[in-house]
């Protein structure tokens, strides 16, 4: 049997009797290890779900990029969990935090 595509889908419980399904499909060539590729898909699904969770919470809480940079620039004033959340938010919106590049 020759496998050319693999698909992985996971259903996440969002609470309040809501679920979210995230699926991903990948093409695979004969030189790739099927089990390794499958684990990579599983990992990607978890990353997508985590990113969506962080961005949704930021939107609900009114957190934007400027606020997240402010928290990262003054980490001593905020809880470790809040600093991690802001770092994740910046990472997931596609910007890398670098203290030397701060605009303030």
Measured by DSSP, the beta-strand proportion falls in 15-25%
> What general outline do the C-alpha atoms trace?
elongated
Read across the widest sheet, the strand sequence of neighbours is: 1-2
User: Which structural class do the helices and strands define?
Assistant: alpha+beta
What's the total helix number?
Answer: 3
Mean pLDDT: 87
Main pleated sheet: 2 strands, antiparallel
Low-pLDDT regions = 99-104
Give the number of domains: 2
Report how far apart the termini are. 59 Å
What order do the SSEs take from the amino end to the carboxyl end, as H and E?
Answer: EEHHH
Number of strands: 2
Output the radius of gyration. 18 Å
What share of residues is helical? Answer: 40-55%
